[in-house]
Design goal:
Oligomer: single chain
Strand content: 5-15%
Helix content: 40-55%
Number of helices: 8
Distance between the termini: 36 Å
Order of helices and strands: HHEHEHHEHEHEH
Radius of gyration: 16 Å
Largest sheet: 5 strands, parallel
Shape: globular
């Protein structure tokens, strides 16, 4: 099976999970404008997706709107290296969740395998604080899915396919959020 075939097959199944993103957007549409934050983390390609999600919130997806608070825990290099040095790499995200999270915030954790110990520790930290903890993972079952309050699982064991559909999920989530906030879509300008 080619990569495009694997992506197509996973996308067909992903469509059944995608409505969850509209529910997440509704919660963010209530939380973020009231001073809440989104804390996001992941490793490797999932770290890139977490940063992408935060940049869409703090910047914009399409049309201009007020910025919303998001922190990519994986982008805090000073904190990452200090925490890894002093407490071990497993604690790099959990310690930041404890430091930054406030009541009502949302933690979004991305992991293709759902098995990264530092992401699992962050989920545990979020749950300890009584936060909504959302996971974007690969195929079920996986340990991250059992630790999150809600999960969007990509039905594939192919890391590339999972990461590609996580990017689609990020864009859908932000698009739904903007729509709920009354942000108009910007028509594409022809070159």
């Amino acid at each position: 099976m080619t990569h495009l075939d694997a992506l197509r097959d996973a996308l067909d199944e992903f469509r059944q999970e995608a409505p969850r993103l509209a529910d997440w957007a509704a919660q963010l549409a209530w939380t973020l404008p009231r001073g809440g934050r989104l804390l996001a983390a992941g490793n490797g390609g999932s770290a890139a997706q977490a940063q992408h999600l935060v940049c869409e919130l703090v910047g914009k997806l399409d049309a201009d709107r007020p910025p919303m608070s998001g922190i990519a825990l994986c982008a805090e290099t000073n904190a990452l290296t200090a925490i890894a040095n002093d407490y071990g790499y497993e604690q790099v995200f959990a310690r930041q969740v404890h430091a930054h999270a406030r009541e009502g915030d949302v933690v979004v954790l991305l992991s293709t395998s759902g098995r990264s110990r530092n992401v699992l520790a962050a989920a545990d930290a979020g749950r300890e604080l009584g936060l909504e903890v959302w996971g974007m993972t690969g195929a079920l079952p996986n340990p991250l899915a059992t630790r999150c309050t809600q999960v969007l699982a990509i039905p594939s064991r192919d890391t590339q396919v999972v990461q590609e559909l996580h990017l689609v999920a990020v864009h859908l989530l932000c698009g739904y959020l903007d729509s709920l906030l009354g942000v108009p879509l910007v028509a594409e300008v022809a070159s």
